[in-house]
Specification:
Blueprint lengths: L3 H11 L18 H15 L2 H15 L16 H5 L2 H19 L4 H14 L9 H4 L2 H12 L5 H31 L5
Helix pairs in contact: 2-5, 2-9, 3-5, 3-8, 5-6, 6-9, 8-9
Length: 192
Amino acid sequence: MGCKLSQLAASEFTNDPLSRPPPTADPRSPLSAKQQYCMLASWKGIFRQIEKTGIILFVKLFQENEELLHLFEDFRHLQTVEAQVSSTELAEHATKVMHTLDEGIKGLGDMDSFFAYVQHVGSTHTQVPGFVADNFMKIEKPFLDAAKTTLGDRYTPNIENIYKITIRFILENLVKGFEEAKKEKENGTSHT
């Protein structure tokens, strides 16, 4: 019924990607495809203020875990919030950490690359004197607080849940990379 043009138009409508369910996410990802999309869309708001968010993260990290400050040679002398907020060294490191998180978040679409990258970053922390795997997990709450501060009213309960799942997954894989590298060092089979 109808001409070829009508049939073609009808077939294009039924092939509309918005009318189909989202593609399935890699089963190794803790996020559904829809959650990954929401994470990436929301993350753009963080990325536009990446340095500010990173500084907030580190200030909160040091407020809640003063003992971690000694691990940072370049800014262990920064004992007050004011000194930390105005420190160029802290801002540079905070931005570097946020870019690492950015790579991890953007890598969730390719789990093989995600695991390789995040676990490699975790393994490099075996070179930091006094660093222990549990230190990674101490970043979770300050990260979530910094994201909430940066996003403001865009930090909805749904976004909060997605951020919690994402940061835990990244931190767990940093820990895994750290522990595997530490074990290799202890066994004398290090590849780094």
